[in-house]
Amino acid sequence: MAFWHSVSPVVAAFLAASFAFSAVAADTKRVLLLHSFGRDFKPWSEYAKSIRTELDRQSPWKLEFLEHSLSSALSDDENPEGPFVEYLRTLFVKRPPDLILSFGAPAAAFVQRRRQQLFATTPMVFTAVEQRRIQPSSLTDNDAVVAVAHNFPAIIENILRVLPDTKTIAVVIGESPNEKFWLGEMRREFAPFADRISFIWYNDRPFAEILKHAGALPPHTAIYWHGMSLDAAGVVHEGETALSRLYATANAPIFTFDGSFFGREIVGGPMHSVLNLSRQAAAAAVRILRGEKADELKIPASKFATPIFDWRQLQRWGISESRLPVGSEIMFRSPTVWEQYRAYIWAAIAAILIQSALISWLLYEKTRRERAEVLARNTMLELTHVNRVATVGQLSASIAHEIRQPLAAILANAQAAVRWLEKANVKEVLKSLNGIVSQGHRASDIITNLRAMFEHDVQERTLVDINKLVLSVLALVQIDLQKQKIELQTQLDDRIPEVLGNQVQLQQVISNLVMNAIESMGSSQTRVLRTKTELSQSNTAHVSIEDTGTGIKPYDVDRLFKPMFTTKAHGMGMGLSICQSIIENHAGRIWVSPRANGGSIFQFELPTVASKDQAA
C-alpha cells in the first residue's frame, strides 16, 4: 500500500495504460487467411475482402489477420506443398492462429490433405467454395463449412429467357486443376440443352486466341464466363484483366455464375451473392472464436441470390426489361432528368406558377382598368347626352316662351287687318301691318340673341395647332378604337401654320366626325380610320377623316348637314349641323364625299394665320 501511495499520478497513469494494453493484447484474435492461387484471383479475392470487413464489424475482439497464398495450386504437382507446410508450422510454432479461413476449392483441398500436419486442433472455416469440392469424410471436429451450391442449368435457362434467339453459348474457362474439374461438371449439366443450343469450349485455347475468336462470334451467341486463372498456354491471369479484355473485344453479351464478377462487363441473372456468403462466414467465425464447436455449425450451402441485372448492359444489347425473371433487381440505372434535378424542377415550376399568377393578376387588373375606363367614358357620354337633352328641353321651352308673344301679336294684327279690310278702314289696316312688322323684328331679335348664346366672343379665340388638336382627339378615342378593333392610320403635315379659333369648338368638330366614323364601321369587316392634315395651295388647313364604314347614300349627301336630319336610328340630327355652324363661324367650310370602296370622307378647311396675313 505504501508503494501505491508513493507513486506519482503520471507513473500511475502509465502503469494503468500498460496493464490495459496487456489486456487488449490478450484479447486479440489471430486469424489466418489461406488463399487459393493468390490474393488477387477472382472470385475468391472478393470474398476475402468482404469477409474481412464483416469480421471487423461483427467481432467484439481486436483481430490480427495473417494472409498466405497457395501458389502451387495452379498445377497438378503437389510436391511444393511440403515446404509450404513446414514454413507455416515454423511460422506459427510459438503462437498458433485462433482460427483459419480458407478461400476457394484449391485451398480447401490443400487443408484437407494436410490437416493432421497443419494445425490439427485449430478450428477452421471452409468458405467461398462449392459444396462438391469439400470431402465430408475428411472433415474433422474442428472444421466448419460455409459453402455455395452452383446451379448451371439455371444459368443457361436465364440466358435463353432474356435472349430467346440464342443459338450458341461460348464457355470461357481455364486449364488449372480446379477449372478442369468444373469443365467436366458443366459438360455434364449442359448436356440436356444440346438439342436447343450448341456450345463452344475455350478451355484448350490460349487467351489471345480466345479474344480473337470472341470478337467474331456468329449472331445469336452468348458468352458464359466461369473464370480464367490459367489458360492453355500456361499464362496466369490475376485480377480483372482477363474479363476486361474479353469485354472490350467480344461481340456478344457476357453472363456468369458469381456476383464477384458483376459490376461492369456482366449482363446479370441468378448469381451467388458475395455479401450474403460473407456475412454467414463471418458469423460462423465469430461463433467459433467465442468457443462453439466448429462441427456443430451446420450451415446450408448458399444458392443463387435474387437475379440482378446491369441496366447499362440491357441497353447495350437491347434486352427488354419485360424478359427479366419476376423479382429481378436492376442495378446502375441512369437516373432520369426528374430524379437528377427534382429540386430544380420543382423550383422552376414554383417560379413559373408565381410568375403566371402575377401575370394573370396584372392582366386582370389591366382588363378591369380598361373596363372601368370604358364604363366611365360611356357613363360620361350618357350624362352628356342627358345634359344635352335637358338643355335642349330648357332651351326649347325658353324659345317657345320668347317667340310665343311676338307670334301671338303677329297673329292678332293679321286678323285685325283682315277685319279692317272687310270694312275698308285703310288707316287701321296700316296700323295692324305695322304691328306685324314690329313683332317680326322682335322675333328676329330673339333668335339672334339665342344664337349669340352658343357663340363665344371673338376675344376668346386663340392660336390653335390643328395637328395637336387631331392627336388630342385620337388619344381620347383610343379605347374605342381598340374595343372596335379599328386600325388607325395618321398622316399629319408639319407645314400647316396655326389657325385662329376656339380650341374647344374645333376639338368638338373633330371629335364628332371621328365618333361618327367609328360608329359607321360597327358592322364592317375591314375597319380602317384614316386622319390626314395638309396645307392647301391657298395656305388653308385641310383636314380629312376617312372611314371604311357603311357610307352615305347619294341622295342624302345634300341633306346631311341640315338640322334635325339624321341617318342614325336614335340620332337627333344636330351633330353635323352644329359642326357646320362652328366651321362656318370660323370662316371655313365643311363637306362630305363617298369613298370609292365604301365608306365616307368628311373634310373641312380653315383659314390659317398665314393666309389672313397675305389677305391683309
Characterise the protein shown here:
This protein has 4 domains: 27-148, Rossmann fold, CATH 3.40.50; 152-269 and 305-331, 3-Layer(aba) Sandwich (Rossmann fold), CATH 3.40.50.2300; 342-454, Helix Hairpins (Orthogonal Bundle), CATH 1.10.287; 460-615, Histidine kinase-like ATPase, C-terminal domain (Heat Shock Protein 90, 2-Layer Sandwich), CATH 3.30.565.10. 47% of the residues lie in helices and 16% in strands. A 5-stranded parallel β-sheet has the order 2-1-3-4-5. Strands 14-16-17-19-18 form a 5-stranded mixed β-sheet. The chain has a 4-stranded parallel β-sheet with strand order 7-6-8-9, with no helix packed on it. It is built from 19 helices and 19 strands. The longest helix is centred in the middle third of the chain and has 81 residues, at 342-422. The termini are far apart. The protein has helices spanning 2-6, 9-27, 44-58, 81-91, 105-114, 152-162, 177-190, 207-214, 241-249, 274-289, 311-316, 337-340, 342-422, 426-454, 466-476, 478-483, 503-520, 575-585, 609-615, and strands at residues 29-36, 63-70, 99-103, 124-130, 143-148, 168-172, 198-201, 221-225, 254-256, 268-269, 308-310, 329-331, 462-464, 487-491, 499-501, 528-535, 540-547, 589-594, 600-607. With 616 residues, it is α/β, with parallel strands linked by helices. The chain is rod-shaped, with a radius of gyration of 58 Å. Helix 15 packs across helix 17 and helix 17 (503-520) runs antiparallel to helix 18 (575-585).
